[in-house]
């Protein structure tokens, strides 16, 4: 079941890297919200979820999609799966006429920050324990 598979990935990651992953107190409620409201793309190998991305493309005022979660199992890191999932989310944001894709990264999560900056995201704001990043996704149109 999708919800259980996402919970397992999130709980394992929280156990391994609590301070720099995501700040949530109720994994079950967080995943339930994602499953009911977000666009979710997954990748399975041998019947087991090894990657997932969840994002929202519903802000018609700012036309900014928001990436809530991207997670790849430890044994699949470095395989390019995070790039594949992010590319699909960017494509979906473009299809839904979003202008940007935004996300937040905890300051201790240097690996994620480096990944996003290498993909063209720029830090737009900084708070006590997070960076807010954004990537323009709209296709430029010549006039």
From TrEMBL:
MF GO annotations: acyltransferase activity, transferring groups other than amino-acyl groups
Domain of life, source organism: Bacteria
UniProt entry keywords in alphabetical sequence: Acyltransferase, Transferase
The keyword Acyltransferase is annotated on this UniProt entry: yes
InterPro entries reported in the protein's UniProt record: Acyl_CoA_acyltransferase (IPR016181), GNAT_dom (IPR000182), N-term/lysine_N-AcTrnsfr (IPR051556)
Keyword Acyltransferase found: yes
Gene3D superfamilies referenced in this protein's UniProt entry, alphabetically: 3.40.630.30
Domain N-acetyltransferase: 1-136
Name used for this protein in its record: GNAT family N-acetyltransferase
């Amino acid at each position: 079941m999708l919800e259980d598979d996402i919970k397992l990935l999130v709980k394992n990651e929280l156990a391994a890297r609590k301070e720099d992953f995501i700040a949530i107190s109720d994994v079950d409620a967080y995943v339930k919200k994602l499953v009911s409201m977000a666009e979710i793309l997954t990748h399975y190998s041998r019947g087991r979820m090894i990657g997932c991305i969840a994002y929202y493309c519903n802000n018609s005022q700012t036309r900014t999609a928001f990436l809530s979660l991207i997670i790849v199992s430890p044994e699949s890191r470095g395989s390019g799966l995070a790039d594949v999932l992010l590319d699909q989310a960017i494509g979906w944001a473009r299809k839904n006429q979003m202008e940007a894709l935004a996300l937040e990264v905890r300051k201790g999560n240097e690996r994620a920050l480096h990944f996003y900056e290498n993909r063209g995201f720029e830090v737009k704001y900084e708070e006590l324990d997070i960076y807010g990043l954004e990537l323009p996704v709209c296709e430029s149109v010549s006039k």
